[in-house]
DNA sequence: AACTAATCGAGACGGTACGTCTCGTCTTGGC
DNA sequence: GCCAAGACGAGACGTACCGTCTCGATTAGTT
């Protein structure tokens, strides 16, 4: 009989619980709070109350509410956006950008993500974690796809493909974070067209002109 | 004889002061606090102590610390970036973007601005004020310059020039807000080149070769 | 109509309340908590919850829970023990000591007082307040009565009456604070008798002996 | 060789140690902490860190920090005050009281003792342990000496000598615990004189005079 | 000599209180 | 009337300690 007899009741007591169990509880709770109320109303105090974990434990693992929220977002909320490769870079960029825009504008996770970016402006820990856990990974996926397009000649060899990421996804983030203009499908199409074709007057279409350079 | 002599020091007492004087004191104080410590450590409480205004007065004029900070930023900090028009859109975009990047990366005001954008993700009042006082104005200036370029044929007529703003300045904001990659001069040059020339293989320049390499 | 219409409910809001009203609420609440549960279980947190005052307010006025408890004890609990003067110092001491012992052993205030003395061993603020608000006052009353007895020849002129206070009330406190022996009426009687008559062999009763000096 | 070489340092590891060794370490550590910082800043947490024992072990042997502190005080700090017997009770009381006062006012152990008495007002375990380990023992020593004085006629047979202990040592504790008045040598002398000789007018010495002055 | 059972250290856990800070509301008392 | 000064209720902050517990490592008694 290695099991100690639990004399009276199933009272859990205050002692230690397995760390993984606690972590899972916390991340699940924070995920729900984030989707329900956003990052602004999230506090360590409420997380502790709602998750059953103590503040001590929360502070032990996460340096700020932002890093905790990011952790919960990545583990519980984030839909992993696949990056297609059909061989046609124009079509694949459109597909991926449309999927990204859909998540950011039609799901509650989109607002959480912009709040995390906002919070990271004042929280260096969060900024570092965000880059490590999220953005650099996404950036690398895009970079790899663009490099393959470059290798097969769909993108000029002289181009630094990393800049394209800022001119495509970065442009979308710009309209999400500073919403002077809406994020429409026309906008997404224009992003890709402008870059692939250029915005100068069509060379060959106006043979006599040749304004540039 | 029981009245304490008020002659020592500039101790102001509690009576009413002209509204404009108070406003000016507050905005000046907040401007200094912003540059010295950023938006994160700014509070109504500290502003009241440092400026001599009472919290009552602050709440009467500004709904949140973000809107107050923005007000101070616009009135006291922001260097107004002129938008050049030499007739050459490529050169003018480079000039403007370089000036913008300089302010954002080399002055302390740059960090304040990204903090304001961050704060606005959780403060609807600030988001609205930011668009009204700052971004829509800047956007219109750029839009007008781009439209003039379009009218003289430097930009194809089929282009929605508002999208270009997101692909130029928006791309810079992207690297400022999510600093996976640095904001270099090469980056700025690439932004303009990519858009004006397009990133696809150069059509017509190498008729026999086809795709590069 | 100077009265603002209280639109919905009688919700008090969060604004300022008159200081005296708050103080009275707090002292009343602490008085009840003290008598019900003693000083050990008293915390600022519970006082704030029970009294409706905020912790900020409590810390503004009282440096520690001990000083607050003492304040409440003096204002709300302490029965002022009169000091009789019938002309007979032996009888008056007995009367006063018996009243004192009654309060300390038969009422709940007695335990509060010993807890306050205990707490004051580790709280210099409380120790100072205790002397200022309580013990030095009580001491002076006793001292005055004893001096009058000295002036009418009931106590020898060579005696420092302040020492007597320690040998009477101090002896009682000793049995209250370190309860090896009970505080009985016989004990009280013996305190007075021992001092007034001395404990040496009775001079005059054994004319031939004269052991001492 | 996966076993780490244990030769460097005296790093103990986590295995079981002899109980007596652990107890001695703990009591030694607590004794030092007590003298250095007093009882107020003593916690189980710090004792565990400083002594190398785990909290589990501490809680197994001592129910509260007070009882542990008392244990350490008695075993490590307390100078055993001898009780002299020269045959002259007046001289012996003075000797013992002076030695006692010296320890209480001139050594750091004095403050520890008053803190222990203070703590015992809110800790029944400590109060019981204090009586058992310390005060009742000291009381018995004094009682025995006083009884011998009574047997040889230096103290009247009708006196309950236990009361004298409260009127001598208790009076000193009173001034230590509630320091309205200082504990001077005059005070100590007066304690003994007042009791042995009484404080009333000297009977038989000035038969014609009556009351003084 | 190997095995078992106890007991140790280390320290995470759920709680609770600490003392401080800021929020947004409200009262008081000059001006 | 409007203002400063700042007290107020509310509640989050990050830390410390409480007393309970899990986990391995080590050792003392049994086999």
UniProtKB/TrEMBL annotation, chains A, B, C, D:
DNA-binding region: 43-62
Molecular function GO labels: DNA-binding transcription factor activity; transcription cis-regulatory region binding
Domain HTH tetR-type: 20-80
Any Pfam family matching the protein: TetR_N
Domain of life: Bacteria
This protein's UniProt keywords: DNA-binding, Transcription, Transcription regulation
PANTHER family the record matches: HTH-TYPE TRANSCRIPTIONAL REGULATOR RUTR (PTHR30055), TETR-FAMILY TRANSCRIPTIONAL REGULATOR (PTHR30055:SF148)
Protein known as: Putative HTH-type transcriptional regulator
């Amino acid at each position: 009989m290695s099991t100690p007899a639990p004399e009276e009741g199933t009272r859990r007591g205050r002692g230690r619980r397995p760390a993984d169990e606690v972590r899972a509880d916390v991340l699940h709770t924070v995920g729900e709070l984030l989707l329900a109320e956003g990052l602004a109303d999230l506090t360590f105090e409420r997380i502790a109350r709602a998750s059953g974990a103590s503040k001590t434990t929360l502070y032990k693992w996460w340096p700020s509410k932002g890093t905790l929220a990011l952790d919960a977002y990545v583990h519980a909320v984030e839909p992993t956006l696949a990056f297609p490769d059909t061989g046609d870079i124009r079509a694949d960029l459109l597909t991926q950008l449309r999927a990204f825009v859909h998540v950011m504008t039609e799901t509650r996770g989109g607002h959480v993500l912009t709040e995390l970016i906002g919070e990271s402006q004042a929280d260096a820990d969060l900024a570092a974690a965000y880059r490590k856990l999220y953005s650099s990974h996404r950036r690398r996926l895009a970079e790899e796809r663009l490099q393959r397009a470059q290798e097969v000649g769909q993108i000029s060899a002289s181009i630094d493909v990393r800049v394209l990421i800022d001119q495509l996804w970065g442009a979308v983030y710009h309209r999400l974070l500073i919403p002077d203009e809406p994020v429409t499908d026309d906008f997404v199409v224009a992003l890709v067209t402008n870059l692939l074709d250029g915005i100068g007057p069509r060379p060959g279409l106006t043979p006599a002109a040749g304004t540039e350079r």
